[in-house]
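To fix ideas, we reproduce below one chain and its tokenised fold.
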Amino acid sequence: MYNYKRLNDIIGWMLFLVALVVYVLTVEETASFWDCGEFIAVSYKLEVPHPPGAPFFLMVGRMFSFLAGGDTELVAFWINMVSVVSSAFTILFLFWTTTLLARKLMSIKKGEEQLWQTLSIIGAGAIAALAYTFSDSFWFSATEAEVYGMSSFFTAFVFWAILKWETIEDEKLANRWIILIAYMMGLSIGVHLLNLVTIPALGLIYYFKKFPKTNVWGIIATLFVSGVILLVINYIIIPGLPTIAGSFEILFVNTFGLPFGSGIIFFAIIFIGAVVYGTIYSQKVSNEYLNLAMLGLIFILIGYGSYATIVIRSNFNPPIDENNPENIISVVSYLKREQYGSRPLLYGQYFTAEVVDQKKGAPIYRKGEDKYLISDYRMSYEFDPSQKTILPRAWSNSPQHAEIYRDYMDLKPGEVPSFADNMSYMFRYQIGHMYMRYFLWNFAGRESDIQDAGVLTPVDAFEEVPKHLKENKARNNYWMLPLILGLVGLFYHYQKDPKSFASVALLFFLTGIALVLYLNSPPREPRERDYIYAGSYYVFAIWIGFGMLALSQLFHKFIANRITAASLAIAIALAVPTVMAAEGWNDHDRSNRYFSVDSAKNFLASCAPNAILFTGGDNDTFPLWYVQEVEGFRTDVRVIVLSYFNTDWYIEQMTKQVNKSEPLPISFSEEAYRQGGPNDYVVYREFPNIKGAIPLNTYLNLIKNNEEDLRISSEFGSYNIVPSKTIFMKVDTADIKSRNLVPENKQEFLVNRMDFKLKRNGIEKNTLMLLDIINTNNWERPIYFNNTSLQGIGIDVNPYVVQEGTAYRLLPVKSPNREVEFVDTDKMFTNMTENFFWRELNNPNVYYNEDYRNFVLNHRASFNTLSEALLREGNTDKAREAVLANLDLMPDQGIPFDYTTAQTVDILFRVNETEKAVAIAELLGDRSIEMLQYFVDNKASDFYEIQRQWAILIGVSQTLNQYGQNDLAQKYSEALQKYREKIQYMDLRR
């Protein structure tokens, strides 16, 4: 005699173990790129990450970090395990969700399950769970320290919990499940807000149980109430309560003259009193719904209480303390993600709209000595009303975005889009490219891991593709089997139980297309965003499970024995997750992948002791934070994120000691760099009596002394200006020589004056602070830039930087030739061959996605730069050693050669490695021809990839011709001519 409940529990936990083992075997062993390095660092020391934070995730991560046993190199693995375990639990609850829905679908009462029914239900749950286990986007998030694995767990749990609630007849017991759901949603706020979008779907399930006789108006009312609950949590509870508390605080402190915190205490007493009174009142009047609402609110607030750790830790000023949310005013800004700006949702401007007015909005406060001071005002922009529309989708006026909008809408320069153009863009790009493409990646197939890669269909399996694409490990073809089975299950679900289908379909919509509409993303994101929509893939996995039920029913028409029919359906349906696992394993296996961390260490290893290193953005900063905060590597180097350096809270943090790094040499007062002050953006204004360059020291002193002649006023305040586009700094060359700051072979390039030219018609605060550091530092601490920060700063320092690895050092020497990099060959050679880290880059079995390959590309380019510099110095032997190290450490078998390798070929010829040069040139050339032919045959429009292959072919052809390899040179020259004619007629979209 079998027990359905026991079997359901056992199989569920077995699938949990399957998912757990899969994710453990494929988990990243260290900190991967993007936000993972930051999350691991802030979890390890409970610091403050980027808004709006993820405090509950951090606390769980901190607990998991203890399992490292003090070994800092294991910390990342164990915090990655938070996602592994969370994702395995997601699979568990997905299985139980599917079996609950399947029981309802088959109208089976508790305890009356027949063997064939049990087999069908368990089979459907297992197929759904395994399909989601091996789905592309979910598997990706399950193996790294990001919030999406844990967020998926909360989504799976609350949806399972509402289905459990639906099966319980005792109202008192059932309401406990509603309260549990409220608590879990409160906790999920401390991870990610995606879980909140499940509320309308949960509301439908609640309505269908409470009101068996349903009607359209009842459904509309339910969706309205559910929407109100969602809005209350998302806009009133999360940012609203702190905002109201902040208003009380300003009133009590600024108006009533009471101490800091008095307004918050008063609001807390009033609010808690109101909640307690409402709960007691609901019991007195025996109002079940009011009582349930009050208890739900309390438990949401208890879960939401994890955010207290953000404020507590910020007040301790940890090394990573983004936005410094240590008082109620800054917490509100943190929760609202104000630093990221806003996007129009229901009504707004087209990307072509001109700003016609600028209005001063609500004041922005900061904490003073005895009251809150107004530091700035929120600005609102009025756009040309003739270029506004409902549902503005093409709204960003960024030049890069505008170009893509015009491509998708087929607009001519200067042409204004119509509403039809706007909707076309929404369906073609936002829904088509940024959702349906992702959806089909998971259930049909994926061309590659190259950004903007398309969908792979069964037809594509028989297409001849270049070896370079064919061997891309992320080229996964599922033969559309998951998609077909899921669509079968979707229609089967609708046919069997329309009410249940409505709830599940609503969840599918809310976690998919509705999110697309709400986020209203601009085109060309920095990376693919498929992980955002994993909730909709979770729902589709349920339908894949139901597809197995449909097969079982179909087979029963031909096979009398229901057990046999169900068994056959399970056996066939198992092909779906089997194919997904087989195709996806090699590109989801992150074993032995370390270069995210190694490249960060290489940045730091490029720097001299006690250095200052400027970085540009997330992907080249967060891994550095990880290696410093967790592994304790080179904590003497102060890393400055250029984009953050525009904010007063970040500048203030740079004036303090962090780990082994001393405070930065900043001479500006807090008043001079505060937000909303006169130096947020220093505009260029020509002065009639000032000709040529101005001295840096004098200019900075005038600004710090609030010199009236350097200020202009507007209705929004007064601002400083810069009266010249060139600022110079004098150099004490005798002092520089006495301190041996300049290498011996660079002494001839020492200058007594450095001219910094403005790149634009003004200076942002980050560049102004850089100038202050350069001036105040007086060459005491080495100053370095990575490539992105070098391009991002508002002044041109390129003539005065010397490359010493993957970082560039600012020195009072001027490059004699701006066409080539200025290199300290001794330091760079030592750094790259002795101090850098290159783990597993020569291992062909390790999977490196595009982010990793791009960082390898940068390192290959640095080796080329070093080799070229050595050749210019006449040091052929050392140049040969460098170029061979390049090939040995980063071979084609580990990371396929890229366009930097075309330059490597030239260097190989020059160091008399002719055989290697010809072999690599032929490999590159033939590969490019194959790729270009593929693009031409398929009328592909990948502008960037075509451009890369074109550059390789040109480089190889010219190099071979230069060194007398005439036959090969002619072959590639003819190919260039052939494809030049074909490509120029192609529609190349950027």
In short: The radius of gyration is 31 Å. The chain has a mean pLDDT of 93. Residues 365 and 374 are 4 Å apart (CA to CA).
